[in-house]
Design a protein that fits this description.
Length: 161
């Protein structure tokens, strides 16, 4: 078994949001699901692994925030005055929010693994993982990195066609 990071030990459930194509509303569904769970009193985090199109920071109006380090890794960005939702995205690591990410597979896969092992999530009831469109290496890397943890399941977003 892969080595387990202690940073996810406080996360009770992990939910992946996937689709076979882009533009179907994965990020919107991830955001709305996190907000609905938070409204019901749950502690929620969103991990945005859509490295080429990180839209969650913009959707939650925190795209101007920066990620900081602590003893156990990166501290996620917290949304709202009540710090209701923890969020990690490559969007926080870019010099400008609209910068393009043009990386090959190994570099993307390494960042996904780092997001899983090096983000200090704390205690969460749910971690929503917003994935990129399609069925790429990023999906395989995400599932492999999360395999040792309590993956609740996946939501597949489709279109009516």
């Amino acid at each position: 078994l892969p080595e387990r990071s202690t940073n996810l030990l406080g996360v009770r459930h992990i939910v992946l949001v996937l689709s076979g194509k882009g533009g179907v509303g994965k990020s919107t569904l991830s955001t709305e699901l996190a907000l609905a769970l938070r409204h019901r009193g749950h502690r929620v985090g969103i991990l945005d692994v859509d490295l080429c199109g990180p839209s969650i920071p913009r959707m939650l109006r925190v795209q101007d925030r920066a990620v900081h380090q602590c003893d156990s890794g990166w501290v996620p960005v917290f949304v709202g005055q009540d710090r209701a939702i923890a969020l990690m995205s490559i969007g926080f690591l870019l010099e400008r929010p609209d910068d393009a990410v043009v990386w090959r597979g190994p570099k993307k896969n390494a960042l996904i693994k780092q997001f899983v092992t090096d983000v200090a999530w704390g205690d969460l009831d749910f971690l929503i993982v917003d994935t990129p469109p399609g069925t790429s290496d990023e999906h395989i890397s995400t599932v492999e990195a999360l395999r040792p943890y309590r993956l609740l399941g996946a939501i597949l977003v489709t279109t009516p066609q």
